[in-house]
């Protein structure tokens, strides 16, 4: 009888899961779409496409519009990474990550006893890396842009001058950083005002800076009046960035990390981001398991993902850094025999302990705030870009004269190998500070092909959790049959080797499941943050229409036509 009931019930559940109703689709459009953290930015990007611009023109517009509408993470004082896939299938990526200033030293955040000086790498002028965003957008426009730069900049300048309406979430974000704004800046700043929901923030100084950049080009920011004002401002506030630092900054075209998972081809960011390599390692480690049958966020699925994540983040910590400064054994790290060996001691019976996992042995023959946007244009080009100031409003240092916040990206270096940074990531020697070096990132802008055609554009903020959030979003669509919007909405978890714990979004996972995991030796925590990641993605549906997935954990919005 018991057996009979179980059979009936499991048949019912199997039937129910096979006939899973599509409960939620995001915005559907026919031709083109931009999904970003703010409606204004998505609209400005989409309007550029409507005018006949391509995804690269729209990238420039969206990136700048986020600097105006979403200064929490959107920026011209930070940097980022962009992965593209052109309509003809050609792929590539751009590194416009910040760099350490020429006067930076390995021990610049340590006191005389070699202890970390609290907040020096996170708050104020010493935390700033040389910004890369303006170099990035001009590199993109020069290579692929079709509209004149004036046509792209003007709507953004208008947005700065006419103002941005404060949302409820934004009012909370600004309010939450008031103490830091006061601590870091000599005077009150525009964002020290008591901004309330529906107020309008007008940024005429930023509008003027953008106008000068529009008129004089990239060099305005790196060699012109803006460069002089910026380096003077940073030094007046105790920083070390000079005019020479700005003048020497270059964005860099790199080769993306490309790998296969089932029938998908995944194109993601290469170092100095760890995103692509870690995503590839994790996906290759989990590929032999039948996730589809285990089901979404079930015990077995969580175990497999956690164990693969643990092993990959241990490698991240040891091997990954700026490839212009260290040799990264990418081929070995992605080798299938190596990855199989890494998972060899995994068992469903018991959690592996992170203390027993170190980076894998490789024989080398010598040798929480970011924002992501996804774009597909009417010609079939796709852009996936993640950009950041690192922390919320970066270093909190705001240059009132120029109208923007400066990043605190220097914290992504390992200030002291073995000591965690603000995301709890333990860095190794390879990611130590050196002049002109780029700090290791987790940003994972990603594009996916299926049957040689564009399938998905995806990415997210979230510090250390970026890689595992992108991973879960891809699996949600590919393994668990979700729509783009469902895949974005679904509850998320994360493991990063150290600390040895599974972070879960609070109140989203079943208590019995948590108990089962604990029983197997996993430590579960929900304390870090109310959300993990904020994904913005676009899925190409079978009929070639586009579905946007805009994360309602934020104000994110899809706009298209
Ligand atoms: O590059 C990185 O990995 C970090 N600077 C990203 C920071 C971030 O995502 C913060 N957002 N929550």
Give structural notes.
- It is a single chain.
- The chain is an alpha+beta fold and 561 residues long.
- The protein contains 19 helices and 21 strands.
- The protein has helices spanning 2-18, 39-50, 55-69, 133-144, 149-162, 168-176, 178-184, 204-216, 218-222, 225-236, 243-248, 275-286, 291-294, 299-319, 330-333, 336-342, 466-478, 484-489, 511-519; strands at 28-29, 33-36, 79-85, 91-96, 164-165, 200-201, 252-254, 257-261, 264-268, 370-376, 382-388, 398-399, 404-405, 446-450, 453-458, 493-494, 502-504, 524-525, 536-540, 546-550, 557-560.
- A hairpin with a 7-residue loop joins strand 16 (493-494) and strand 17.
- Helix 2 runs antiparallel to helix 3 (55-69) and helix 3 packs antiparallel against helix 4.
- Residues 368-370, 388, 390, 409, 412, 441-443, 461-463, 466 line the site of 6-diazenyl-5-OXO-L-norleucine (DON).
- Residues 368-370, 388, 390, 409, 412, 441-443, 461-463, 466 line the site of 6-diazenyl-5-OXO-L-norleucine.
């Amino acid at each position: 009888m018991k057996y009979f009931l179980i059979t009936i019930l499991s048949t019912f559940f199997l039937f129910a899961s096979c006939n899973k109703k599509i409960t939620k689709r995001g915005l559907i459009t026919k031709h083109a779409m931009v999904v970003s953290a703010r409606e204004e930015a998505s609209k400005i990007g989409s309007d550029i496409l409507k005018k006949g611009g391509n995804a690269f023109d729209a990238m420039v517009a969206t990136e700048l519009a986020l600097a105006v509408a979403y200064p929490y993470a959107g920026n011209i004082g930070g940097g980022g990474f962009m992965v593209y896939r052109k309509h003809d299938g050609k792929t590539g990526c751009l590194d416009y990550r910040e760099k350490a200033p020429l006067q930076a030293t390995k021990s610049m955040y340590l006191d005389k006893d070699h202890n970390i000086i609290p907040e020096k790498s996170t708050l104020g002028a010493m935390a700033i890396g040389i910004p890369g965003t303006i170099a990035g957008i001009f590199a993109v426009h020069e290579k692929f842009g079709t509209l004149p730069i004036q046509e792209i900049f003007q709507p953004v300048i208008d947005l700065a001058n006419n103002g941005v309406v404060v949302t409820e979430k934004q009012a909370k974000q600004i309010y939450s950083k008031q103490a830091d704004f006061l601590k870091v800046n000599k005077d009150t700043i525009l964002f020290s005002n008591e901004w309330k929901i529906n107020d309008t923030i007008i940024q005429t100084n930023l509008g003027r800076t953008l106008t000068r950049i529009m008129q004089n080009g990239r060099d305005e920011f790196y060699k012109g009046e803006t460069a002089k004002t910026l380096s003077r401002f940073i030094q007046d506030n105790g920083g070390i960035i000079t005019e020479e630092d700005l003048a020497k900054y270059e964005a860099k075209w790199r080769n993306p990390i490309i790998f296969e998972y089932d029938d998908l081809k995944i194109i993601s960011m290469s170092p100095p981001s760890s995103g692509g390599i870690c995503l590839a390692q994790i996906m290759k480690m989990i590929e032999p398991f039948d996730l589809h049958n285990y089901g979404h966020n079930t015990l077995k699925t969580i175990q497999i993902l956690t164990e693969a994540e643990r092993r990959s983040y241990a490698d991240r910590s040891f091997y990954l850094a700026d490839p212009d400064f260290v040799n990264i054994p990418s081929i070995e790290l992605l080798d299938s025999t190596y990855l199989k060996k890494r998972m060899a001691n995994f068992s469903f019976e018991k959690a592996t302990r992170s203390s027993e996992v170190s980076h894998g042995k490789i024989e080398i023959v010598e040798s929480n705030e970011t924002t992501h946007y996804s774009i597909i244009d009417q010609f079939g080009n796709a852009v996936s870009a993640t950009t950041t100031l690192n922390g919320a409003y970066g270093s909190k240092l705001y240059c009132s004269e120029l109208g923007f916040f400066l990043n605190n990206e220097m914290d992504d270096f390992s200030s002291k190998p073995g000591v965690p940074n603000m995301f709890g990531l333990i860095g190794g020697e390879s990611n130590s500070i050196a002049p002109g070096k780029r700090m290791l990132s987790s940003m994972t802008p990603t594009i996916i092909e299926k049957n040689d055609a564009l399938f998905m554009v995806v990415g997210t903020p979230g510090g250390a959790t970026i890689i595992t959030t992108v991973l879960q979003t891809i699996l949600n669509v590919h393994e668990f049959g979700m729509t783009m919007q469902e895949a974005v909405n679904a509850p998320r978890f994360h493991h990063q080797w150290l600390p040895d714990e599974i972070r879960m979004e609070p109140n989203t996972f079943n208590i019995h499941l948590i108990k089962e995991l604990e029983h197997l030796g996993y430590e579960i925590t929900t304390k870090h943050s109310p959300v993990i990641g904020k994904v913005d993605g676009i899925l190409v549906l079978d009929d070639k229409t586009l579905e946007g997935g805009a994360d309602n954990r934020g104000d994110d919005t899809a706009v298209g036509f």
